[in-house]
Amino acid sequence: LASKMKLHFRNEYVGKENYSLVLFWIRKFPIFVAVIVGTVSYAEAVRPDRPPTDPIAFLAPRMRQCRENRFSSLKSTDEDGSIDKGFNLLETASSVVPQGQIVSVAKNTVKFAWGRMMAELAPQDKSGSYKRPQYKFSGYIGQGNFPDEGGGRYQLYVGNPCPWCHRARLALKVRQIIDDEVGLTYLVDDPVRASRGGWVFDKKPGYSDPIFASNDLRQLYERMSPGFKGRCTAPLLVDSKRKEIISNESSDIVRMLGTASFGREDLRLRTAIDLYPPDLAKIIDETNIWVYELLNNGVYQCGFSTTQVAYDRASAGVRRGLERCNDILSNNDFLCGPNFTEADLRLLPTVLRFDGSYAPLFRAGGAHLRIRDFPNLHKWLIKCWHDVPGVKDSIDIQDANSSYYRQLFPLNPGGLIPTAITAKDIGLEA
User: Fold this and answer.
1) Residues 375 and 322: beta-carbon distance below 8 Å
2) What is the pLDDT of residue 35?
3) Which of 41, 91, 215, 236 has the fewest CB atoms within 10 Å around its CB?
């Protein structure tokens, strides 16, 4: 786009005295310059009787002044400088083209740029629906090269904001798996410091890579899987002895953590919770499917949709999922009966983030929806929080929710972070 604009200006409008100025502005503010090009092109199309309009002529003095003053005059203000009017584009350019066309071109230009950023953040299909990437690592503890043993052979990498990481961390907490059995390393979400993706290591205790001392998760992936081209996602379960990745699929990791003994025969005796009892395996698997489609992934399909049709479909699915949970929990303490199972564990991270992030930021089910609107589901959430060992310690709710606003720039370009939601705000604490 910048190359085309440079060529267009050089050939059609700008003399040597303004060409360097135009290049400067194209590099700094390509979308703004694109709006000017679009509005002028429209004016020439609808008013062919008028002489060609120089889009820089009425902006060049201001552009030059902005650059010379290091952008101190970039923002248009009133006479005493107390009110910011942005670029003052509507007032300045409305003498050339109708205001409606300026607004239309600006909206379409920004929407195009937003769509490209969304596709980078979250891959889309042709309908504008988010398509979660597939993972290629398929190792399993207790099979092949990965025996069911402890001693800290296996290392798990997780980040607090991520719901998929939260699943794995919950499995450790609920089953009382300690560091001597599976090591745990925390990740920091910082896409500015990360070379790919958003996860980096830190110098704080528990936040550094114990295997390779990597700077970020990308380095760890490349050292354990040379030539890796996919997304460097977490949670990540690795074999520190063989220096291999076992899995980066959260559902597989949860199942492994829920069923392996890690060399301790008394592991099941130390916990009253069996996440995957054989007699409930079928109903747990069935529940996992619709909870994932409608809720776990459904909220992301709402937030990452780039068309109205895709959003409406995903949002309706979220509502169906919440209503289905509410109906089931009207007769049961938990999703699959009287006890907490893997199905509840996989739902919990989504519900804990719903009021703070998925409803207001992703507009999942409608921006006004809250878990309190589903009384049986809310009661279940309170029961999980207070009665299931380890749940309270598995998440920093304030950090998890504010991270969505900090890091998902296309969804929150202004960078404003709402007042952090707390456990009390969602009815978990008095």
Assistant:
1) no
2) 59
3) 91
